[in-house]
Specification:
heterodimer; B: globular
């Protein structure tokens, strides 16, 4: 297996999405701490919480848009599967390819316009209109970066489904990797020993 | 094309895209994109990313990942066991008490975790085997857990009510307060149903198996003679006749002490919102800290590994809800540009139909949507469209938010995608899906009855918010 084949299999995307998940989990912790700091400094010292409010919103953007790729890898993004569930396995894979492409249309549009937004802020050196004056080029970069991560995960899904349809990997493997279920209906994302068995 | 026809076409596009099975978030995004290209100037596409960005640029939305994180930390602890035990210690003497303990435990667990399927899994894993080993029928056992879990989206802190509050620009504190009394009322009604179902089942079993009953009666004459309520039925046949373990008052108080600190979190969150100490998002951040400390002290069950899992799961669930919220808000903005909600409100009010008839139709539509889509998705999509109509008809916005949430509870336990049903099937593989569905179905009636009660007596919802705020 050459490096090129590995690159074309897009399996490396999984590591990237996993890393994105850890970063957004860290952002969630950071947001919690920043807000606790805000509550404490207002409650005990009567201070205004300008930067805390703003920074925690930016962290929320990271949690959502970077976490989205992790969520996609872990089957979080629910859909209505009543129709596709009735298809045979290969049909479901074909449907996965179609819906992945449709999703990529949205992701591309957000990436494209989001990059324009970022470029504008970068060129103009925009700052947020608050006392905190956050550099908006940094803030606006969160959205397009997140979209790249999600897009890569979708490309991996398409490649995986395509390979299964071509017969080079088992259909079940590709279905297990690509189909979105409700994460709440599943057991926790991680493989904990099942005590009920 | 008039605004209403435009709205209809947009709704149709969304429907077709949903049916492809693609993630709801991106289906909504694609619908928004198509609507901009078709009905607005394609040059408006430039604002697409800005709309996406601005939809999430809201401090109030932080309450969602934080409450989810709080719930995951709570849910990862041994709390489900303690809650069920406490319920049992207090309710075991009543007929159907074991089922009632499951309802109460599930309602409280769900309130704090904010996740109905997670509740069905956690409480179900403790309660269903326990109930089965004590002769409670599979239907009553699974129905109690599935239905109890739906109360999580109603009893504060509730993600669904937060999303409604943001979409309808209503006070989240008032909405939380509005969910309290209906939450208690529905819990009591669920317990009442268990009492009825247990009684009916006991009777039916005695009627259908007289032979077995006689044998049982013969085997346990002294028991039958002693307990008049048990009517001499065999222990295996009459669910109300199992011998409850004896609980002393000391046991009861101890069991309560193990769960009371967590229940006080619900009260504390309501208080901080009421007193204006903190916004809902800040209350959620404090909630994360408090739950963490309480679990470390009370259950001593915190591991770094477990915390990491809770955190990653919270990220996973949050990103799903927030992506749906984001793209739904984009559509909401586009629809408002096209003045669809305003036109809808105008048209319906000009028709001068009875407003309760309109409400009934809305509820039926929500019910159908609830069969296919998760509550979060429906709330964020439907609220911007319906809100002008609701206020134009003179309904109280807080009341409607709570009513809509109760309606969403039904969708959680109705096929084809009633998540709780499948979670229960997963944890109790030997119980048939048919039994689970039939055991849960009566609760749909109880919830519908609750909606009726809340419509006739709106004070059930509005009394507490009126008192506090």
């Amino acid at each position: 297996m050459s490096a090129l084949r590995y690159a074309l299999s897009f399996r490396w995307v999984n590591a990237l999405s996993e890393a994105a998940g850890y970063v957004s989990a860290a952002a969630l912790v950071a947001a919690t701490l920043v807000m606790l700091h805000g509550v404490a400094s207002r409650y005990f010292f009567g201070l205004a919480t300008v930067w805390q409010t703003e920074v925690s919103i930016y962290l929320l953007l990271v949690v959502t848009f970077w976490g989205a790729a992790y969520g996609l890898k872990h089957h979080a993004h629910v859909g209505v599967s009543v129709l596709t569930d009735r298809l045979p396995p290969r049909g479901r894979l074909a449907a996965t390819i179609v819906t992945s492409l449709l999703s990529l249309v949205v992701i591309t549009a957000v990436f494209w316009k989001g990059t324009a937004l970022w470029y504008e802020a970068y060129e103009g050196g925009f700052k947020s209109p608050t006392a905190f004056r956050a550099p908006l080029d940094v803030v606006y970069a969160i959205l397009p970066i997140g979209m790249v991560l999600v897009a890569l995960q979708y490309v991996f899904f398409i490649v995986e489904a395509g390979r299964a349809l071509a017969g080079s990997i088992p259909v079940e493997t590709a279905l297990a990797v690509t189909e979105q279920h409700n994460p709440l209906a599943d057991e926790p994302v991680h493989d904990e020993p099942d005590r009920s068995r | 094309m008039g605004p209403l026809a435009t709205g209809g076409v947009i709704g149709l596009i969304a429907l077709v895209l949903f049916m492809t099975g693609m993630p709801i978030a991106f289906a909504l995004g694609l619908t928004a994109l198509a609507s901009i290209v078709l009905f607005l100037d394609p040059a408006q596409l430039d604002i697409f990313a800005k709309l996406v960005f601005d939809s999430l640029n809201d401090f109030a939305l932080l309450a969602i990942p934080l409450f989810i994180l709080m719930g995951n930390i709570f849910g990862g602890s041994t709390a489900s066991k303690h809650l069920f035990e406490a319920g049992e210690a207090w309710l075991s003497r009543i007929r159907g008490g074991l089922g009632m303990s499951s309802v109460v435990a599930a309602a409280l667990f769900a309130a704090l975790t904010g996740s109905s399927p997670a509740t069905a899994a956690a409480i179900g894993r403790v309660a269903v085997p326990e109930m089965q080993s004590r002769g409670v029928s599979a239907r009553i056992a699974t129905g109690a857990v599935a239905a109890g879990g739906t109360l999580g989206i109603l009893i504060p802190p509730s993600i669904t009510l937060i999303l409604y509050g943001i979409a309808a620009e209503q006070s989240i504190g008032q909405l939380f307060a509005g969910g309290v009394v209906p939450g208690i009322m529905i819990t009591v009604l669920f317990c009442a149903w268990i009492f009825v179902a247990t009684t009916l089942e006991g009777r039916r079993q005695r009627a259908s198996s007289p032979q077995r009953d006689l044998v049982a009666r013969g085997a346990g004459t002294d028991r039958g003679a002693g307990g008049s309520t048990a009517a001499g039925a065999g222990a295996g046949a009459d669910p109300s006749a199992y011998t409850a373990p004896a609980y002393t008052w000391g046991d009861r108080v101890r069991s309560l002490l193990k769960v009371l600190p967590f229940l006080s979190i619900i009260g504390a969150i309501l208080y901080t919102l009421y007193a204006g100490v903190a916004t809902p998002s800040e209350a959620a951040a404090v909630g994360v800290l408090v739950v963490l400390v309480l679990i470390a002290i009370a259950y001593r069950g915190i591991t770094l590994r477990g915390l990491g899992h809770s955190l990653l799961d919270a990220t996973n669930q949050s990103t799903m809800i927030l992506m749906i919220t984001t793209f739904s808000a984009v559509i909401g903005t586009v629809l408002a540009f096209l003045s669809v909600p305003q036109e809808l409100a105008l048209m319906v009010t000009e028709l001068e139909i009875n407003k309760w008839l309109v409400l009934l139709v809305i509820n039926l539509v929500l019910l159908v949507l609830g069969m296919f889509l998760p509550p979060v998705g429906i709330i964020v999509m439907v609220t911007p469209v319906l809100f002008p109509l609701i206020t134009a008809l003179g309904f109280d916005p807080i009341w409607f938010g709570v009513l809509m949430t109760v309606n969403m509870e039904i969708g959680l336990i109705t096929p084809p995608v009633g998540l709780n049903l499948f979670v229960l099937k997963g944890i109790a593989p030997d119980i048939s899906l048919k039994d689970i569905v039939l055991g849960t179905l009566p609760y749909v009636g109880v919830l519908a009855f609750s909606i009726f009660l809340m419509s006739v007596f709106p004070g059930i919802v509005t009394w507490l918010p009126g008192l506090l705020f």
